Amino acid sequence: MHQIYRCQYLNHSDQEIIGICLNPSCKQTRQYCYKCLMDNQLHQNCRNNFQKINQIEEVIQTKLNYLEYLQYQLSQKLKVLEKAWLNWMTELQQEQAKIVKILESLKNHNFFLLKQNLPSVIQFFLSLQNDNNHNKFQKGLRLAKSCDLLNAIKIFDEILKNDEKYPDCYYQKGLALMKIDKKRQDYLQKSVECFRKAIEMNKFHFDAYKNQGICLFQLEQYDQALKCFTSAITYGIYDKECLLYKAKILQKKDENFEACNILDKIINQDSQDLEPYFYKGVYLIQVEVYPYIIQKSMIRHRDVLIKLLVLIQIMFKHISYRVICCLSQKNQMMLEITLIR
Ligand SMILES: [Zn+2]
Ligand SMILES: [Zn+2]
Questions:
Q1: Interval 83-109: pLDDT, tens
Q2: CA distance 28 to 41
């Protein structure tokens, strides 16, 4: 250890190291002593990058302090945000309860109750007179919900003309576009663009990542879609649809081992869910091993199973299947699908 604190140069061995050369392209011994400092032949082009040990220490300590400061700030911010978020949620719930009540009083022709809430109704209508983006957005949402997608998109476009920085508006427009017709490439492509803008403005937009992935999947741009699902999954929110899509893409890319790992993750969450078994089965059929699901769950999920079998038939048109249900020995979910070529 002491070795390093003594200069390595000939005739400098009695000298203590006082600093380090931090020139990135320096090829000489990095540490220097007082004699090195005096010798013009050594570190000729490095003098500006000479740093004393205590200076380096100071700079690093400063950085450390700054990191501690940032962490403190971040944890404080989290507390404030958490509190504000909870308050906001409570406010929304209170408003919702009030509006539900008003709506009920209208439906039941309970005008006494309606009269009691009249100040809120008046307030509500006053706020609607304002032709702002917020009101327009609400209208767009309502139209989209009632499947009047083209008119919803018109409204979203109007909003975006006034305010280009409205991530949720892009997101909703994207959703509406993809709902019009899942087979229309031009709509899907436009949706992808909308979701991209939403993510650009709000990189925590989990749903935008997910739906962008779904559009890209429909467009058969599997590598791009995979990136979206992977980004969405990194947020740590369990979302079966996201995982399932990722598994399907991996299967298409012949990365079956990883795909099965993902399907197992879904099965671990809910062992009664038949869909992951189905996709695992699709792979297993491909390698001519038989997928299994227990008879008990067969009875319980008869309708789902029939759908699955139809799906299997669609996917493997050239093969016909005879399905034999049987109980498994290991009490696992089992369905034996026998191949008949
Ligand atoms: Zn030296
Ligand atoms: Zn140097």
A1: 999 999 999 999 999 889 889 988 999
A2: 11
